[in-house]
Amino acid sequence: MADTITAPHISGHADHHDVDYLHDGKGLKSWLTTIDHKRIGVMYLWSILFMFFLGGVFAMLIRLELLTPKQTIMSAETYNKVFTLHGAIMVFLFIIPSVPAALANFVLPLMLGAKDVAFPKLNLFSWYIYMVGAFLAVGAMVTGGVDTGWTFYTPYSTTTDGSVALMTFAVFVLGFSSILTGVNFVATIHNLRAPGMGWFDMPLFCWGIYSTALIQVLATPVLAITLLLLLMERTFGIGIFDPKLGGDPVLFQHFFWFYSHPAVYIMILPGMAIISEIIPTFSQKTIFGYRAIAFSSVAIALVSFIVWGHHMFTSGQSQLASAIFSFITFFVAIPSAIKTFNWIVTMYKGSVAFNAPMLYALSFLLLFGIGGLTGIFLGAVSVDIHLHDTYFVVAHFHYVMMGSTVIAFLGGLHYWWPKMFGRMYNEPAAKVACALIFIGFNTTFLPQFVLGSRGMPRRYYNYLPEFQFLHQLSTVGSWILGLGFLIMAGYLFASLRKKMDAPANPWHSRTLEWQTSSPPITHNFHEIPTIGGGPYDYYRPVGKGRNA
Amino acid sequence: MSSHSPEVAEHRFRQHHFVTADQQLDTSKTGMWLFLATEILMFGGLFVGYGLMQGVYPEAWVAGHHHLDRVLGAVNTVFLLCSSFSMVMAVHYASTDQKSKTVMNLGITLAFAFAFLVIKYIEYSHKFHEGLLPGRYFRLAEVGGPPQQAMFFGFYFMMTGIHGFHVLIGIILIAWLMVRASRGDFSSAYYTPVDLIGLYWHLVDLIWIYLFPLLYLIS
Q: Does a structural domain hold residue B125?
């Protein structure tokens, strides 16, 4: 095996008989019936971006309402519905499917040198399930809304008015979409790697997605049954979660967090997976500690299943349980830190290029550092008693979910955009947008740490006058953030209107998805690639394998 | 993925993104086992909830289970065990190119599955008649005994209901297999659907093996 990668016909232009996937079939029907993972990934991408927009509008409304104490633009009842919808949409309709179903759907088979995912029809089916779930969720919004918070805690959720049943059912349906994606990716990684590609020859993105998919497969069914029990509770009053009927509301919390804590890692692991691609590419250097990063992903996935009780320190669970959950929670810090240090060391003595994707990756390192370390505050029982249900918690999980996962998602979007659509976006505009998003994000959420530590409770409509300055700072931050996203939407849409100009490998990466044309042909590669070297062999000239 | 029989590789049911039929078979099996894992975890959640509440209200559980018909439950257990056996035989005959025996054994499986649902229907209508309904529809005045029996029957209907739904899906899948088998789709070179739906059917059987003692045989 003389060549690292044997994929002939590396060129930006498709052969006359091999059209790219965007032009292979015209019209809406060819998209709605496609089983091409790239097209399904693109359909997912537009769907989740729309949901991100919707959730973002709700977020802006929340911040606007909190500009002044008491009523600013909406009533307290409306406010409860708005923050619930913001949370439910962002978690279940945007973040969870964002990287796996949209980006990984597109790049995972390419990275493995495969023609498609393991089960292409199931892949399309999962998109349709997602759309059904999305319509049900929107239906719940317009037929009364939901005011329970995204966690649907009982007994409030079984007694309040509104469309709780419909929203719960929507999330139940969305869970199946997530399960099918997970099953598909695990099977793909197990069975569809190109000839010669061992587990440790895969790009680290695949390890991250593999760990994510395992959690999707193992945790989501528990959410499904929990929501089904909640539905039965609402319709038949079977009483499992209702103390009036002899049930136990804390049991609901156990069930809910048994899924939803691992789900937090469904959100962060793919973000980390993207960072593991961007940093070596833009440092033009072999990733430091490949195996350490790979095993850290799996370790995070495994530990994620035994820490759920740290969401329940004040719920009345036994103190011994709280102490044990707190202790195990600290273990999450180890693989997370291993990854972070490896990414930093990868940049050391590399030739670092500060393109937009890399700026997002660097933002990720800073924001994930803050998000991760404040998580340790909350994982410690004694500190959490003081901080629980305050804005400190809100700030913490926004630093992880938005500051880390969404920022990484945006990094990935900018990184693979030329591959997905064959067009380069306006780089200076992208840098400005990235800077605005970084500044806006910190202006929005840093004050919330202070608010929380001073005792401002989360989800409250009204607040004491001394909190007003920090709330206003946070609201101004949300406007900067919104401006950043507007600019991003502008240059991304503008890039789609011009002619295809992206080279096959604009970032000089060594992973397989860059060794085919941009955008790729329907079958991904003209010939099945054979693998002779690692995905990050930047120390060798392009095309030279281990034995060269 | 190691053996390469050209005859197998060129089989008409190989999908475009697989290099060999073996690779396709391995992949399908991986997918099916993962799916079965999700099923076990879903029922696992129910079992945990059931077990916890049984620990809190043991007397309501014992009182509730006296209203269940052990004989009908046992008969259904036997039916499902027999259907699992005929399913194994169907897989065996499909893999050894014996078309008519494959169809026959699938038919036997289907018959047992139907019989299971008929008995379940009889059981359910008795419960409805006697007011043994879940939650707030439970007619305690008629039935008597501890009030948490309402919760027991909530679990009973959910667990057997979701299981019954799986039996129904199984019936549809097995009927589809019969159509394909009689059309001659399956041979020793390709019988993946029979194999996979067989796995699914065993899981449905296995879950009932746990449900029967948990619901009918407590003391």
A: yes
| Interface residue ranges in chain B relative to chain A, Cβ cutoff 8 Å | 1, 15-19, 23, 26-27, 30-31, 34-35, 37-39, 41-46, 49, 52-53, 56-57, 133-137, 147-148, 150-151, 154-155, 158, 162
Cβ(A184)–Cβ(A119) under 8 Å?
Answer: yes
What CATH code is carried by the domain that includes residue B207? 1.20.120.80
Q: Which two tokens stand for residue A320?
A: 């011994």
How far does the CA of residue A436 sit from the closest CA of chain B (Å)? 42
Residue B167's nearest CA partner among B205, B194, B126 is: B205
Structural domain boundaries enclosing B200: 26-216
Q: Identify the segments of chain A with pLDDT beneath 50.
A: 1-16, 545-548
Domain ranges of chain A: 27-515
Domain count, chain B: 1
pLDDT band at B1 (very low <50, low <70, confident <90, very high): very low
pLDDT for the residue A12: 42
Kindly provide the ipTM of the predicted complex, given to two decimals: 0.91
Measured between alpha carbons, how far is residue A182 from residues A106, A314, B165, B166, B199 in Å?
14, 33, 23, 21, 20
Contact list, B54 vs chain A (CB under 8 Å) = none
Residue ranges of chain A whose CB lies within 8 Å of a chain B CB: 114-116, 118-120, 122, 179, 182-184, 186-188, 190-192, 195, 217-222, 224-226, 228-229, 232-233, 236-240, 245-248, 251, 255, 258, 523, 528
Give the per-residue pLDDT at A529.
86
Q: Is residue B17 part of a domain?
A: no
Decide: residue A539, CB within 10 A, 0-12 exposed, 13-18 middle, 19+ buried: exposed
Residue B14 lies in a domain: no
Please indicate whether, in this complex, the C-beta atoms of B39 and A221 are within 8 angstroms of each other: yes
Q: Do A437 and A410 form a contact (C-beta atoms < 8 A)?
A: yes
Topology, domain A27-515: Cytochrome C Oxidase; Chain A (1.20.210)
pTM: 0.93
- List alpha helices for A19-36, DSSP H: 27-32
Per residue in B14-55, pLDDT (tens digit) is 888 888 888 999 999 999 999 999 999 999 999 999 999 999
Calculate how close chain B gets to A453, using CA atoms only, in Å.
36
Residue A163 has a CB neighbour count (10 Å cut-off) of 20
A115 and B52 within 8 Å at the Cβ level: the answer is no
pLDDT of residue B11: 64
- The verdict on residue B127 lying in a domain is yes
Q: What pLDDT, on a 0 to 100 scale, did the predictor assign at position A213?
A: 97
Q: Which residues of B touch A225 (CB under 8 A)?
A: 42-43, 45-46
